[in-house]
Structures are given as C-alpha cells and as structure tokens.
Inverse folding.
C-alpha cells in the first residue's frame, strides 16, 4: 500500500489532497500517478467511481506552473463533467495560484473568451467547444505540455472522435498525453496508437473494481407486473437517493410519469431534455429534493453525486460493462450502496452472463409481499401522520365531519378507512395475474405439463439444472418429475410457478423448443411410472 506522502509531488499539492479528505490513493491512483510523474504517456482504465480524476489531476496540477498561459488541456464528454473535473482540480490547486476554466457548449462564447484572456493554466472542455475556440483562435495551445482525454469511451460514444483528432493534431508533439476510460473498445486503442507515445497501460481489473461496499441483489419479476414489483421493492427499502435505470428514453418518460402518479418524488433525465431542464433536474437531485432520478445510461453519464444510496436497474443493463458502470454510481467515496436489478424470465440468461463476467454470483431476493411492504411502511406512515398532526392549519374546516364520523362509527374503523385510502394504491394489490388452478401437484406446488420427454433425451438432471439456472432456485426445490416418451410433468413451488412458466418458454432443452402448460389434475388412481 502506498500513501500520498510517498509520491514525488510538491507539499502544496499534498496539503491540498489532505484537505480534500483523501486518506490513501485509490488503486488506479496508486498505479497511475508514479508513471505519469515519470513523464510517460499513460492509458488508465478503471471503472466509474474509482478516482480517475485525481489520478491525472494530481500530476497535472503538480506540473503546471503559475505562469499565465494554457499548459494543460483536459477533454471531457459533457459539460457537467467539465465543471466537475474543474472543481476537483481547483481543490487540488488550493495552495497554488492556478486558474482552471471549464469550457463547454451552451455557455456564451464571449464570456469564455474573456475568461481565457485573463490567463488560465488549465482548460477543461468538451471537444466541440474546444475546436470552436481553436478555429476562432481564442485558445492558444502552443505551450500545452499535457493533454488528458477523460472518459474517452464516452467521448467516442458521443461522436467526438473527429474533434478529438483535430485537437490532438494542434497540440505540440512534445506533449505528454494521458487517456482515461472505464472501457477500452477498439477505436480507443486505435486512437492511442495514433496519438500517444509508447503509452503505458495501467488497468484496474474488474475483480478489483466491483467495490465490496456495493451490495447487489436481483429480483425475479414478471414483465406484466414489473412496475408493481418495483414499487414494492422501493417501498420496502430505506432509500435516500436512488437512480433508476431504464433502457430507453420512452421507458424513462413512462416510468417517471407512473411513479409520479403513485406519489413518489421522482424526476426523469433523458437525451431529449434541454440543457436548462437537465440542469433543473440535476439540481433537484443534488439537493435531494427528489428521491428518485430515472435515467437512461446515456443521460446518466457524468452524474456524480456522492450520496446515492441505491442504484436500481429497472431494465437489466445490456452488457456486463454497463452493469458495473451503473452500479458504480452508488457506494461512492467509501459509502455504502445497494444495487438492485429487476430480472424478467426472458432476461435470466442475460443475468447469468453478467455474473460470469463480474465473476461473482448475484444473490436473489423475492419481491416483498403485500404484507411485508405494509409491515415495513408502518413506521414511515406513523411519522407522516404525526407530522400532519403537528400542523393545525386548515384543521377547523373538518371539525363538523370529524364529530359526525366519531359519533357514528367506532374510531378504529374510521382510522383504518383513512389509512387505506391514503396509503394503499394499485401497487399494493397482491396479484400477479396468474391462477393455475388445480394442477394435481403436491400441496404448495404447481404441476406443469411440458411438451417434450424422452424423445429429446430429457432427464430429471437436465430439467432440474435448467429450472434452477433459469429461476434461481436450488435444484432440490424442484418437486416430482415424471418423464414420458413425448411429454413430461414437473412440479415447482407455487411462489416461483409464474416465473418458471414464463422462463421455460424462452429456453430450449437439449436443443428443443419447450412449451409448457399447467397440468390437468390427475384422475384418481392414475398409475405413475417410477421417477
Ligand atoms: P471516476 O472518474 O473514476 O469515475 P472520480 O474521479 O469522479 O471517479 O472519483 C469518484 C469520487 O471519489 C469523487 O467524489 C472523488 O472525490 C472521490 N475520490 C477520489 N480519489 C479518492 C481517494 N483517494 N480517497 C477518497 N476519495 C476519493
Ligand atoms: Mg471520471
């Protein structure tokens, strides 16, 4: 383990780091900082939230002198990140007379030109706006000795590659080039061969990044009652600040509306918002005036809020990398975080591939039942009622009705009715839409008919493995199995029956497409073959 004091940097910078409350370097900082200080080009790869900003920020502010011209240029994908990086660098230069200036589209260019004229040492900007300034000759890069490409993968995703190349061509060839990214897709490698000098790769592998402080859980949910399941889950968690991820913009709008309609304090973030709408939402989120931020992966880029307690994957992420990326939004700066993923039957295989990639199984939990939610909520409800009781405003209007009700009915009945009206809504209904009826299974079990049997070499072992993988239940939870020539019966626990029913339909057994139906109850005294 190393300490900041062991780095070959000035005391001014060490003191600033100390004031920021950083105790020890994060793994990427530990590995990257000495190499950067030695003057080499560096490619740093580590997941979101691992402290990449300071990994390049510390050596950069250490090297920059107080002379008033641009010495370092940092490119970031979004305006928000530019501001954020600039803020972090400012803290690092607390004891040095250095100005950092974020430059991004959407802000008046003449304002930026004026600021540049005053003499800044470090410019942090989005590639589009920086090229703009280069074209107008309002930003001189002659004396730039360090260029940083921050969140390079995201800049690429956002289509900035040409701007980046144009900028790199403008900067002194003798420069030091640093590239930081959460992922290393081929175009980034290409970019690095082309514009960097013998770059040293400093990577923190996934095993090291899936921060242990992030607890992960997945819930099996059915597509048709995903929203209800989500509500139950969030009702039974203590959430200060949560980010809920959806796959699409449309998904974000729909879920935002649905949650707002159910009384949650939620707001959505997606690519179609104007910058000021976006700023507005982000401000509410930062100030914690909203509880939930609903966002697509793209819209959530550059969000860096430290106190996110929960990341909720309403839609399962498309690939393992974005899973790691998403859950990295919580548990930041050493805080505790919880990542919850909703998984539909169709998505179970996908979940398994994520588990393979991150090299750890994600434990599953059942969506809380109606009764569990009610129990969890009692305290919250009580507090809400007590708060309302402390507020006498407008109470007198109800006085006649209060007396009338109390004279007519028992108090208990009145209170119960009011509670129900106030706190229950659709999501509290305990119905998943499935009723398999009498299927002839043992008590507590549902028996299914499957349309293949010995003809596809079905065996109890194969069937049990398939069900336990797809449904995430232990093999021994699967009940009685009867395999015939062309069909099979299997019994599974009632609570997972709807999930089994849907999941097996998306699977194959020994290459054969599977269909299943709830079985008909057995006629009395049916002869059973031995298992
Ligand atoms: P990344 O760019 O890798 O996503 P950031 O640079 O934004 O991550 O850092 C994430 C958070 O961790 C920030 O709030 C930052 O201030 C904090 N941080 C960075 N390095 C350290 C450290 N050595 N000790 C404690 N906190 C740190
Ligand atoms: Mg970063």
């Amino acid at each position: 383990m190393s300490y900041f004091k062991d780095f070959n940097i000035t005391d001014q910078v060490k003191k600033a780091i100390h004031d920021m409350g950083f105790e020890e370097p994060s793994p990427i900082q530990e590995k990257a900082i000495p190499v950067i200080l030695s003057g080499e080009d560096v490619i740093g790869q580590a997941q979101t939230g691992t402290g990449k900003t300071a990994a390049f920020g510390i050596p950069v502010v250490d090297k920059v002198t107080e002379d008033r011209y641009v010495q370092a240029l940092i490119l970031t994908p979004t305006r928000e990140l530019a501001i954020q990086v600039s803020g972090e660098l400012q803290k690092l230069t607390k004891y040095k007379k250095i100005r950092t200036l974020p430059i991004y589209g959407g802000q008046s260019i003449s304002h930026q030109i004026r600021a540049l004229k005053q003499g800044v040492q470090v410019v942090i900007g989005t590639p589009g706006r920086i090229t703009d300034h280069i074209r107008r000759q309002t930003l001189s890069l002659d004396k730039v000795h360090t260029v940083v490409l921050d969140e390079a993968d995201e800049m690429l995703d956002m289509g900035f590659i040409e701007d980046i190349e144009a900028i790199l061509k403008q900067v002194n060839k003798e420069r030091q080039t640093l590239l930081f990214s959460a992922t290393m897709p081929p175009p980034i490698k290409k970019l690095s061969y082309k514009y960097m000098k013998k770059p040293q790769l400093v990577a923190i592998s996934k095993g090291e990044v899936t921060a242990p402080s992030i607890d992960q859980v997945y819930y099996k949910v059915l597509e048709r009652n995903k929203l209800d399941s989500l509500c139950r889950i969030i009702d039974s968690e203590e959430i200060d600040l949560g980010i809920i991820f959806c796959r699409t913009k449309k998904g974000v709008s729909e879920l935002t509306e649905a949650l707002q309609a159910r009384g949650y304090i939620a707001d959505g973030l997606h690519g179609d918002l104007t910058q000021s709408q976006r700023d507005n939402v982000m401000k509410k989120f930062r100030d914690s005036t909203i509880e939930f931020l609903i966002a697509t992966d793209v819209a959530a880029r550059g969000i860096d809020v430290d106190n996110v307690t929960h990341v909720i994957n309403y839609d399962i992420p498309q690939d393992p990398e974005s899973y790691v990326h998403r859950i990295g939004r919580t548990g930041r700066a050493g805080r505790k975080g919880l990542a919850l993923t909703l998984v539909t039957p169709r998505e179970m295989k996908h979940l398994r591939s994520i588990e393979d990639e991150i090299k750890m199984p994600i434990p599953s939990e059942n969506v809380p039942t109606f009764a569990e939610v009610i129990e969890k909520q009692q305290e919250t409800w009580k507090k809400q009622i007590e708060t309302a009781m402390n507020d006498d405003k407008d109470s007198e209007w109800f006085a006649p009705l209060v007396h009338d009700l109390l004279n007519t009915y028992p108090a208990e009945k009145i209170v119960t009715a009011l509670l129900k009206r106030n706190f229950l809504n659709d999501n509290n209904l305990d119905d998943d839409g499935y009723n398999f009826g009498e299927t002839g299974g043992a008590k507590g079990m549902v028996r299914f008919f499957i349309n293949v049997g010995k003809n596809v070499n079905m065996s109890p072992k194969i069937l049990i493995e398939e069900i336990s993988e797809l449904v995430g239940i232990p093999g021994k939870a699967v009940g009685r199995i009867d395999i015939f020539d062309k069909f099979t019966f299997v019994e599974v626990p009632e609570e997972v029956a709807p999930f089994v029913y849907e999941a097996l339909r998306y699977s194959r057994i020994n290459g054969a497409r599977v269909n299943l139906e709830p079985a008909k109850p057995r006629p009395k005294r049916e002869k059973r073959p031995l298992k």
